[in-house]
Amino acid sequence: METKPKNLIIACLALLFLIGQTGCISSDLPNENLIPKPVSAIGERGSFDLTDQTNIFVRGDSPEIKRIGQYLADILNPSTKLGIEVKTTDTEPNPGSIYLALLPADAELGEEGYELDITSKSISLTANFPSGLFHGIQTIRQLLPARVEKKEGQKGPWKISNGIIRDYPAYSYRGSMLDVARHFFSVDEVKRFIDHLAFYKMNVLHLHLSDDQGWRIEIKSWPNLTAHGGKTEVGGSDGGYYTQKQYSELVKYAEDQYITIIPEIDMPGHTNAALASYGVLNCDGKASELYTGVEVGFSSLCTHKEITYKFINDVVGELAAITPGPYIHIGGDESHSTPIEDYIPFVNRVQEIVTLHGKKVLGWDEIALSTLKPNAVVQYWSKTENAIKGLAQGAKVLMSPAKNAYLDMQYDSISMFGLHWAGYIEVDDGYNWDPARLVPEIRKENIIGIEAPLWSETVSNITEAEYLIFPRLPGYAEVGWTPSEKRNWGDYISRLAHHRERWKAMGINFYPSKLVPWK
Ligand code: ACM
Question: What is the pLDDT of residue 91?
Fold first, then answer.
């Protein structure tokens, strides 16, 4: 378990030199179709077989590690029918088993890294923290045949090539955003999206909870936001909203997969649903009409009214109380109906409110026009000069450049769903960019990570959304996880091609891009 890849290579080379034995370097492990590509994978001869003797042993008595073990068992058992059980042990497990243990002493692996040692006798997965074990389990899933993801019994064998993987992410924030305001997505649909993120080792789900077309989170002190403002969605069909209980259920579901939910209340623009729900939030005191179109930039909270800040304080307070994650996203984008001389003091005051509720501020790049709080993060989507203004104030940047990272852009002019105002984003455009090289002024040390937003003007359910999400999401996961010097388009698409089988086994809808040599 303690063998480091470097030691293994030295041992192999010594063996090669002494007796001409090359077996130690032969294995398929480095050529497996893992996404994101691991930092290091070294093969050894032979393979591990899951059999009816296999169980998952968890070192110590941690309920959290047992839960992670059970998560793996629940994936393996329906298809393999091997009746794999989770057991605890204080010693080395029985031969033939999978062993999960926290060994918190490996600085290189950091918070989310893991080491996977596969021998013909056992699979040993170790990490400093539970999140590392969870990511390692996604690797184990991807090393097994795609049919392991099916819910009905499948034929074996269930072999995994021997070797050692050591793996950890390039960026600590690897996320996606789901716009549940333009079209509402049910709790189960959001859970399904969370599962997709976890499978590719992403760790943030940003929920865009309010916009002109709908308010989607229950605020107990302002009940009309959802009772009225949540009624409809783009196109005029029924909308919906999450009760605080449902939102908490999503937070917990995500947390169990080491994903942080970041809630966004977009303001001062993109606020028609709130303005339609409460006349008092409008400068003229009159509630606006509900809106089911897709134009942007026409709405604004009334920045001069004191009630506006009471409203924001109530909303942020209720949301902060049910959000364990560190950030509240305040939007701030496309506030075309808010004069800049009103916008700046407004954003300053909203940042104050968020901070008073114990949260850090995240906002679209326009918020850098204001005076940023220390720890505020600027989400770069559109204007380089805004991101640079943020950097000049000491802020970190979250990379979501629309031209590269927007999951709602069409693949090409004839692909179903999506918009194209930022361009067409084929699978290669989504993959072939380096967050640390896109803008000369934004360097790796300025970047907390990447996020691929999915705006939902054109998609009304998760199946339609999946067409935009796949096959691009795995690319964003790799951009965020794998060191850029280890990423290569040709190698990536040959791995991606094999994931179709997995998506089919999981019932995932996807766009069959011609750029990928599908297997
Ligand atoms: C945005 O796409 N309006 C942030």
Answer: 81
